[in-house]
Amino acid sequence: MTNRPGPLYPTIADTIGHTPLVRLQRLGQNSRGNQVLLKLEGNNPAGSVKDRPALSMIRAAEARGDIRPGDTLIEATSGNTGIALAMAAAMMGYRMILIMPDNSTMERRWAMQAYGAELILTSSMETARDLALAMEAEGKGIVLNQFGNPDNPLAHYQGTGPEIWEQTAGTVTHFVSSMGTTGTIMGTSRYLKEQNPEVCIVGLQPSDGSAIPGIRRWPEEYLPTIFHREQVDLVLDIAQQQAEDCMRDLARIEGIFCGVSSGGAVAASLQLAQTLNNATIVAIVCDRGDRYLSSGIFAPQN
User: Fold this and answer.
1) Residues catalogued as catalytic
2) What Å distances lie between residue 21 and 162, 165, 205, 220, 264, CA to CA?
3) Rounded distance, CA 32 to CA 273, Å?
4) Alpha-carbon distance 107 to 68, whole Å?
């Protein structure tokens, strides 16, 4: 009897990317001939757009010989990158230490711990970033540094951007993304601009007084070094209430269950659609809503 190898099945890493692009059916209907399309990144295995750079950063560091399985990795995160890195570290054989603000939802903390990561809580994202670098200097591990690592936007240049271009058959006119680490908007904008310089890249930051998970207005000294202002054509401020209202509308009216920053991206896209004609607007829906349930944000509104 001949021993023949069985089928080569994919690993969990092979399921990252190639996420759906769907159209809105009821929200924002108008007669201007616009289409608002949503890239559903919550369909990634760890539930967010950050699965892409998490895998990219670890694989590239391995290829350079900077890390090898068994090493300890350290990263500051507000949530999604931490969950994605915890998953990637688990499947690739690394110890993961994540440092995050203590106001992060319990779902995020539990998800990271489920993948085996160790958590350290701090008072702010800036403090978390400083502590990660201090621990690296003390020899406690290696910081991947999503804020300054070119392998972060590279994941979107090689994946998110080409997927959007292919899924829209090259008709995309506007790309809308919340800005946190800025990896998504940097990598995707670079690819789309190479295909068509006329594609308008729209970045979102929180309005004064707004606290939106995943969207930041960084102090200048903490601005991610991967961010290049010239790659963003238009920066819009989004209010927390506007983002939250749109997030709830997406679940109740469209059946799309997502987080607050995604609500902000869609709200901005609908706002743009009121001023455009025959545009194809693609917004990043970066994660799923289930990791925000304990915050009460989906509780019935009075």
Assistant:
1) 50, 261
2) 12, 11, 23, 34, 17
3) 8
4) 29
**What is the maximum span of the chain, computed from C-alpha positions, in angstroms?**
72
In the annotated binding site, the residues are: 80, 180-184, 261
Give yes or no for a contact between 98 and 109, defined as CB atoms under 8 angstroms apart.
no
Rounded Cα–Cα distance for residues 184 and 133 (Å): 23
List, for residues 169-222, the tens digit of each pLDDT value: 999 999 999 999 999 999 999 999 999 999 999 999 999 888 888 888 888 888
Question: Under a CB-based contact definition with an 8 Å cutoff, are residues 189 and 201 in contact?
Answer: yes
Q: Nearest to residue 243, comparing CAs of 259, 260, 228, 256? A: 260
Annotated binding site for pyridoxal 5'-phosphate: 80, 180-184, 261
Token pair belonging to 87: 């998953």
DSSP bridge partners of 178: 204
| C-beta separation of 162 from 96 below 8 A | no
CB 41 within 8 A of CB 289: no
